From TrEMBL:
Source organism superkingdom: Bacteria
Keyword Translocase: no
Organism of origin: Chryseosolibacter indicus
Domain spans labelled Glycosyltransferase subfamily 4-like N-terminal: 107-177
Protein name, entry field: Glycosyltransferase family 4 protein
Domain called Glycosyl transferase family: residue spans: 192-353
UniProt keyword list: Transferase
Keyword Transferase included in the entry's annotation: yes
Gene3D superfamilies registered for this protein in UniProt: Glycogen Phosphorylase B
Amino acid sequence: MNIGFEAKRFFTNSTGLGNYSRFIVDALSVNNENDNFFLYTPSNVPGKASKEILNRRNVKVVRPSSTYQMFKAGSLWRTWGISQHPTIDSLNVFHGLSHELPIGLPVHIKKIVTVHDLIFLRYPQFYRQIDIWIYKSKLLHACRNADKIIAVSKQTASDLIEFLHVDEKKIEVVYQGCHSNFKRKLSAQEIEQVKIKHQLPAEYILNVGTVEERKNVLVLVKALAQIPEKSRLPLIIMGKHTPYYQTVVEEAAKLGVIKNIRFLNNIPFADFPAIYQGAKVFVYPSLFEGFGIPLVEAIESCVPVITSEGSCFIEAAGPSAKYINPKRSDELKKTLMEVLSDDTLRDQMIKGSTEYIQKFRPEVISSNLIKAYKTA
């Protein structure tokens, strides 16, 4: 098969949707050597994470014509120009990796779109009205025109039916996995070097994700304040800052735990595995996610996970993680102390979770996607 991807984020996003795009192209190109994969992108400056993928014989980059480049009309090309490119007629499948499909794709091409979440509809208070309108318009167009919709979780599939009234027969749930970097067990020396580099303590609680209201890290700060000071481990919060960051800092200062918290921003992706593997426990008290890939990254790093009830969290972390009400700091505090004080429990959580996430292996996801392409 010849398979095309709308691949802007493959090149431009270093986390989130970019990681998903690279994971999918990587998994498919490794496990399906006789198929060809075309990456349609207005910008093809490769990051370190993508160079190995782009060197494969069955992966090809397709860019706009010089006219689009001259007028810096990359967005127009992604929306309409891709469908006019000479390579399009050779495709069997076109896969929009993040909520979008170009206008005017030929009838003979099977059209697939991945939908990650509908948070902008479930929690509109976190978005500008103009952004909600744009996101919804693009997603409605993609869902109407797609032969198959890939939802990254059952939660997202359910939201597509609830909010957009999508025919459930069009939806296929195909989970995502994390970057292969997280699968390598680092030596104690390698972990220690990264700890020294970023001035991290010997033991710590870890949270990873954008510091924004929906991620709900404030409940973790409040839980930390309830732990007796002699039993309190430092908290490392790693992720991009938003205005909510200031709210978290002010509350931490008010509760007297600001000295126990380190905020890490703009950390090289290459250092992520060591920071995960150096943690005593990973806490992810988000209110809602489409999938929650940091949970899989933590489990791959052999770290026990505490996360929220509801949403997709049980799908990502499995039955061996611990689940709490994300609005109850006292419940989180109790669970944190239980996990941190019991080595046997932590080992059981790690073992069970590691077995659970085998379903997110690249070869499994690649096989599921190929089946979806063929049955579209």
